[in-house]
Amino acid sequence: MNLARLDLNLVVALRALLEERNVTRAGERIGLSQPAMSAALARLRRHFDDDLLARVGAHYELTALGQVLLDRTSTAYDLLERLFASQAHFDPAKENREFRLMASDYAVAVFGTELARVVHEEAPGIRLRFSQTPPTVVDDTATLLSATDGLLMPHGVVSGFPATDLYEDRWVFVVSADHPGVGDRLTRADLARLPWVTYQRTYDSPAVRQLGMLGIEPRVEVSVDSFQLLPLLVAGTRRIALVQARLARLLAPLAAVRVVPPPYEAVPLREALWWHPVHTHDAAHIWLRETAARVGKQLTETPVI
């Protein structure tokens, strides 16, 4: 494929056509007349040797190839947008732009709130958008990173991409403040005996995988797609949950729970900011990474309970 012979404007037209599935609406979306949009569709059909849009009754539907291209075109568009938005110089006090970060609700609560506070003070024109890390992050890391500015994720989950370390955390257990069967400490027998509340996305919990290596099989009673809900689902019950110590400290005033240490040497958690190599030399992204590292250093200097 000779990219020099391709018109990259066709990426814009292709995305609009596949998402709108209507030539007129697609043209209105990107500012082209109906004849110009029809001409773009004809060029795309010749290039892919496929109709892409097939008429079914009074409307159009995507062909099999069109369906495949739908997600790929969106990713390519985002990557091109970020590529051509790269800057040699960046003044955070004067710029107006948005950074998109993928993160768990734990990372947003512990780190994202502090990052947002610093950005609010130092760069009033900068916006942050946090989105939940999708389950496909392990299988399709490159594609996901190409469409965003970064991923907040502990070490041990993804690899092969540039990253900057942010802060460290450790794993603790939370139990109800009035739990009748747990004192100041848990035993391994307690971990097997008591019901659990767990986080559904196991890729974010290397410590849970460690339990299997120790021969401990949690008896899961409730699972939830939110770290922040774990203490609330423990309070007033016999359940236990494994959570990050920094999050436990934040949520302790909101839930009647107490923190107890694991009855084994739990693997530490090292949170990092991962990004696609296309961003490495971009001045705006360098500022984002340096700011994130500074916020992470401040967190590191704050003792963990």
Draw up the topology in text.
Blueprint: H1 9-20, H2 23-30, H3 34-48, E1 53-56, E2 59-62, H4 64-84, E3 97-103, H5 105-122, E4 126-132, H6 141-146, E5 150-154, E6 163-169, E7 171-176, H7 188-193, E8 195-199, H8 206-213, E9 219-224, H9 230-234, E10 240-244, H10 245-251, E11 257-260, E12 269-274, H11 283-300
Parallel strand pairs: 3-4, 3-5, 8-9, 8-10
Antiparallel strand pairs: 1-2, 5-12, 6-12, 7-10, 7-11
Helix pairs in contact: 1-2, 1-3, 1-4, 2-3, 5-11
Task: Sketch the topology as an H/E string, one letter per element.
Answer: HHHEEHEHEHEEEHEHEHEHEEH
The total count of helices amounts to: 11
Radius of gyration: 24 Å
DSSP summary, beta strand count:
12
The unreliable regions are none
β content, as a range? 15-25%
Shape: elongated
Calculate the mean pLDDT score and round it: 89
What multimeric state do the chains show? single chain
**Largest beta sheet, briefly?**
5 strands, mixed
The rounded distance between the terminal residues' Cα atoms is 56 Å
State the helicity in percent bands: 40-55%
Largest sheet, spatial ordering of strands: 4-3-5-12-6
**How does the helix and strand content classify structurally?**
alpha/beta
